[in-house]
Amino acid sequence: MTRVAITGWGSVSALGGTNAEGVAGLRTGKRPLAFPRRSPHLVRAGDVLVAEALFDAPIERRARAMVETAVDEALDMAPEHAGVIGVFAGTTGGFFVDAEVDLLFARRDDPEALPAFGQRGQGELAEEVARYVGAYGPVLTFCTACTSSAAAMASAARHLRAGTCARAVVVGFDLLSSLTVQGFRSLLLCDPEPCRPFDTSRAGLQLGEGCGVLVLDADGEGPFTVRGSANRIDPSHLTASAADGSMVEAVIREAVRDDDIVSIKAHGTGTRDNDLAEGRGIARVWEEPPPFASLKGSLGHTLGAAGALETALWLGCLREGFLPASQGFAEADPEIGVAPITQEIPARSGAHLFNAFGFGGSCIALVVADA
After folding, report:
1. Domain locations in the chain?
2. Which of 71, 215, 325, 333 is 20 to 30 Å apart from 9, CA to CA?
3. Contact call for residues 356 and 307 (beta carbons, < 8 A)
4. How far is Cα 205 from Cα 186, in angstroms, rounded to an integer?
5. Which residues, 6 or more positions from 114, have their beta carbon under 8 angstroms from its beta carbon?
6. Long-range contacts at 338-342 (CB < 8 A, ≥ 24 apart)
7. pLDDT-based confidence at residue 31 (cuts at 50, 70, 90)
8. Residue 80 CB partners (closer than 8 Å, separation 6+)
9. What CATH number labels 4-370?
């Protein structure tokens, strides 16, 4: 089987404008959850905290500049490459946020101006990245809610093994928009206090934004390899996995197979149902699970960006030799039965599990191993 190496990664998040800054923020326990300052297009909801990306640029250019910065960081880490490049993008909104920014400027001249949301589509992101990196292989967009860029990464690995491209640039991106913030608020999923993934008192999430990029090379030489993945749909509920953890268990077992998992990057949104299903699923697989943590107490929930962004940051932590603490957790939930790590611990060499779960029953697990 073709060896799929991860040769580069980059990110922009609420913790910093580079992956190194993000890793440093995880190490120090930063929790940049606050009212928005960098997003003038957002309709203010007084009780809703968000995690804005630590990235300043003119609002009309901010989305594309953020993506280009993360892409450049990942490609600068990866070796030179002359083969066919494919782009695999995961997002829920793409550059949809630009429609809100356009409306912001239009209403300065005409308070009755109407939005032109139909002019934006999710595929715009992949197309622009393909032009930016000179990709002539497959250019695909995945829009599977919160699993979008995890699905993009799994598909990229399959394409590399099938030989349709020799390098894959995986991009996960979502920017805060009024549509998503108000949508999650209407579902009563936003905690007015900083979120507490897996904690017994958890009461919801904060939305975040950012961009994560991974460079995957067929038969490349890199510090990590993609070992396996699984992608399943749970039909039991429109917005949640089966509460008993059965589907989470199934997707983890399919991805892990015989690998000795030494760490788990959990999805861990901080919502009652999601954390219950994921935690129970982990407990069904392991009587004593490997150390695991959620990054959303620091990053917020970055929706379609979460898979790639959190993977890039977790890999950065592994390279620095540690696993980050799960911010916001204080007390175990007896209904879950397992608890994340609350302090930084040394990272062990081996295989690492990356979980992603989303609306519509999308369940994805990826296994990445140290080379």
Report:
1. 4-370
2. 325
3. yes
4. 13
5. none
6. 338/198, 338/279, 338/282, 338/283, 338/289, 338/292, 339/198, 340/197, 340/198, 340/266, 340/268, 340/291, 340/292, 340/293, 340/294, 341/291, 341/292, 341/293
7. very high
8. none
9. 3.40.47.10
13 close to 208: Cβ distance less than 8 angstroms: yes
Q: Which residue is associated with the tokens 């302090």?
A: 343
Which amino acid, residue 54?
Answer: L
User: Are the C-beta atoms of residues 266 and 283 closer than 8 Å to each other?
Assistant: no
Give the rounded distance of the alpha carbon of 102 from its chain centre.
26
State pLDDT tens for residues 296-335. 999 999 999 999 999 999 999 999 999 999 999 999 999 9
Report pLDDT digits (tens) over 150-207. 999 999 999 999 999 999 999 999 999 999 999 999 989 999 999 999 999 999 999 9
What residues have CB less than 8 Å from 46, skipping those under 6 apart?
Answer: none
Q: Is the pTM here over 0.90, yes or no? A: yes
Q: Could you tell me the two tokens for 78?
A: 């990866």
Distance CA 34, CA 51 (A): 6
Does residue 120 have a pLDDT over 90? Answer: no
What are the tokens at 297?
């107490």
